């Protein structure tokens, strides 16, 4: 894509750029490795809709910047509004609409022609994703509707806990409220830093612990059970990926 798309960072330029499917993010932490940065951005923004592409570059000119391309404008708009100023690796994100289209959007509206092989690959990948999404719906988990995650309505814990497929992951008897949360149904690519970014926005956060031998679960510690409860309610059902709404309970002690 043409990478002058973000406008170089001035937040004051936002009104002059029409809403579109690509958001431009700057003020990102430059110490984070590119691969981890892309995965973390995908994890944080995927709650707002299907992401077609996350772009970030090693060049000096583009350090601390990234572009997230959504499938539709409404997802990009929601992401811009809800994540503006979000503390991402200890720095508040600055977000605006991108000035220029990414290649993937140009391809979709016919103004860009990629190599035939790449187009076929993209179509196969999209078809596979659609089939997986269909299979997930057929499974009847009841968890695929989009939650507004950390910033919106919270699904009741009982409804989340006993919704179809999630039932088998529950402990036999729920633990009493305490300061440590047990998080399940995490995608395998989840890192401690991704979880820290999500949970540290709630007061009293202490640490995240993941168990290497058991991917998909984590423990998150707070100062007391009141603080852990607020975080649980805020992030219950948060989707790191579209297929993985978090299931959060109190840890057994």
From TrEMBL:
<keyword id="KW-0694">RNA-binding</keyword>
<dbReference type="GO" id="GO:0003723">
    <property type="term" value="F:RNA binding"/>
</dbReference>
<dbReference type="GO" id="GO:0030532">
    <property type="term" value="C:small nuclear ribonucleoprotein complex"/>
</dbReference>
<feature type="region of interest" description="Disordered">
    <location>
        <begin position="106"/>
        <end position="143"/>
    </location>
</feature>
<dbReference type="InterPro" id="IPR000504">
    <property type="entry name" value="RRM_dom"/>
</dbReference>
<dbReference type="GO" id="GO:0006397">
    <property type="term" value="P:mRNA processing"/>
</dbReference>
<dbReference type="GO" id="GO:0008380">
    <property type="term" value="P:RNA splicing"/>
</dbReference>
<feature type="compositionally biased region" description="Basic and acidic residues">
    <location>
        <begin position="122"/>
        <end position="136"/>
    </location>
</feature>
<dbReference type="InterPro" id="IPR012677">
    <property type="entry name" value="Nucleotide-bd_a/b_plait_sf"/>
</dbReference>
<keyword id="KW-0687">Ribonucleoprotein</keyword>
<dbReference type="InterPro" id="IPR035979">
    <property type="entry name" value="RBD_domain_sf"/>
</dbReference>
<feature type="domain" description="RRM">
    <location>
        <begin position="21"/>
        <end position="100"/>
    </location>
</feature>
<dbReference type="GO" id="GO:0005681">
    <property type="term" value="C:spliceosomal complex"/>
</dbReference>
<keyword id="KW-0539">Nucleus</keyword>
<protein>
    <recommendedName>
        <fullName>RRM domain-containing protein</fullName>
    </recommendedName>
</protein>
<keyword id="KW-0508">mRNA splicing</keyword>
<keyword id="KW-0747">Spliceosome</keyword>
<comment type="similarity">
    <text>Belongs to the RRM U1 A/B'' family.</text>
</comment>
<feature type="domain" description="RRM">
    <location>
        <begin position="179"/>
        <end position="253"/>
    </location>
</feature>
<keyword id="KW-0677">Repeat</keyword>
<keyword id="KW-0507">mRNA processing</keyword>
<dbReference type="Pfam" id="PF00076">
    <property type="entry name" value="RRM_1"/>
</dbReference>
<comment type="function">
    <text>Involved in nuclear pre-mRNA splicing.</text>
</comment>
């Amino acid at each position: 894509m043409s990478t002058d798309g973000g406008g170089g960072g001035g937040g004051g330029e936002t009104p002059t750029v029409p809403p579109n499917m690509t958001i431009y993010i700057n003020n990102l932490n430059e110490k984070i490795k590119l691969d981890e940065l892309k995965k973390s951005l995908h994890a944080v923004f995927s709650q707002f809709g299907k992401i077609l592409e996350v772009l970030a570059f090693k060049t000096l000119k583009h350090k601390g910047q990234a572009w997230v391309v959504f499938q539709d404008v409404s997802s990009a708009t929601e992401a811009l509004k809800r994540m503006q100023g979000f503390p991402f690796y200890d720095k508040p994100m600055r977000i605006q609409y991108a000035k220029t289209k990414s290649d993937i959007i140009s391809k979709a509206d016919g103004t860009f022609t990629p190599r035939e092989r790449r187009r076929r690959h993209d179509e196969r990948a999209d078809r596979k994703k659609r089939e997986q999404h269909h299979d997930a719906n057929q499974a009847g988990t009841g968890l695929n509707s989009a939650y507004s995650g950390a910033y919106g309505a919270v699904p009741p814990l009982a409804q989340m806990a006993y919704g179809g497929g999630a039932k088998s992951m529950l402990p036999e008897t729920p633990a009493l409220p305490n300061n440590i949360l047990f998080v399940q149904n995490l995608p395998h690519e989840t890192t401690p830093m991704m979880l820290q970014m999500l949970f540290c926005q709630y007061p009293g956060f202490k640490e995240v612990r993941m168990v290497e031998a058991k991917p998909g679960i984590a423990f998150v510690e707070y100062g007391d059970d009141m603080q852990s409860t607020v975080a649980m309610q805020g992030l219950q059902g948060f989707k790191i990926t579209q297929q993985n709404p978090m299931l959060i309970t109190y840890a057994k002690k």
